Amino acid sequence: MQNRITQLFGIEYPIVQAGMIWASGWRLASAVSNAGGLGIIGAGSMYPDVLRTHIENCQKATKNPFAVNVPMLYPDIEQLMQIIVETGVKIVFTSAGNPKTWTTFLKEKGITVVHVVSSVKFALKAEQAGVDAIVAEGFEAGGHNGHDETTTLVLIPAVKEKITIPILAAGGIATGRAMLAAMVLGADGVQIGSRFVASEEASSHDLFKKSVLEAGEGATQLTLKELAPVRLLKNKFYQDVQLAYANGAKTEQLKELLGRARAKRGMFEGDMEEGELEIGQVAALINEIKPAAEIIKELVAEFEIAKTEANHY
Q: Rounded distance, CA 154 to CA 140, Å?
């Protein structure tokens, strides 16, 4: 399965585990990297000293490449970037911001840079900023999302037409068949989040993992566009948000309702009622918690079977 993505990252399979807040610590990242994919530490939920610990532990747990995801809205981003450089991280995924801000700095340090986008417009801006690859994420994805609600099926070929750098498809991908479909549409590989939430090594709370397994079709909804679009499981907090909308809530009232640490409360601490539970639509296809290595193995096997079947058409 060697292609532009595997060559860029030095990995066996073009499978990247998304850098999800409260789910992707060093245990998950190292497990994915050891299984031949690219594991990512999600720095969005980490204080600088916590990130340093996760990087150092990951370096001890795997000799294979891994990355760090940094949302550029993070208040202490300068400290995070300095720690990334000091600890010798070789691959950084940036998101939620202008790729021009940090790409040159990172590339001057010899770091491979990937930026997450949700539209052709931002894919072009990322390429112009000098990133080495992009993640094109459709609105099926969990967590924070694009405003335009462009699906992965539409986004990937649209981006492929306009840029020349490698593309990772994200959003709604949890199986080998979906991986093949994304690559037929023009992706060089896939970034997978929700499926790895339901892994043994994910740092998310067991109750959150269980809720992912129980999620059926229609169990999630994209909401809070006035703040930052986020796809949530429909729990009590989600219903409170909908009630606020029905009562004509403005941006400030929505901010007050969201408060602080709502995502930590749900995904990490296990408050299934009042917590913010971020997960993708594809949760409806996830029925079992497995080791990350087994998930990778299944993805690759399904991909190969689907490719063989496709050749019969």
A: 12
pLDDT tens for each residue of 23-69: 999 999 999 999 999 999 999 889 999 999 999 999 999 999 999 99
Is pLDDT at 146 greater than 80 in this prediction?
Answer: no
Structure confidence at residue 293 (pLDDT): 98
Query: Are residues 125 and 90 part of one domain?
Result: yes
Task: Give 72: exposed, middle or buried? Use CB within 10 Å, 0-12, 13-18, 19+.
Answer: middle
Q: In sequence order, what E strands does 185-276 have?
A: 189-192, 220-223, 230-233
Whether the model clears a pTM of 0.85, i.e. scores above it, the answer is yes
Strands 133-137 and 143-144: unpaired
Residue 53 CB burial class (10 angstroms; 0-12, 13-18, ≥19): middle
Tokens matching residue 309 = 């079947």
Residues 239 and 165 in one domain: no
Q: Are residues 260 and 171 located together in one domain of the fold?
A: no
Count up the domains in the chain and report the number.
2
183 and 216 assigned to the same domain: no
Which residues neighbour 104 within 8 Å (Cβ) at sequence distance 6 or greater? 129, 130
- Same domain as 68, residue 15: yes
Give the distance, in angstroms, between the CA of residue 56 and the centroid of all CA atoms in the same chain. Answer: 21
**Do 196 and 247 share a structural domain?**
no
Query: Where residue 7 falls among pLDDT bands split at 50, 70, 90?
Result: very high
Dihedral, 196, 199, 202, 208 alpha carbons, nearest 10:
90
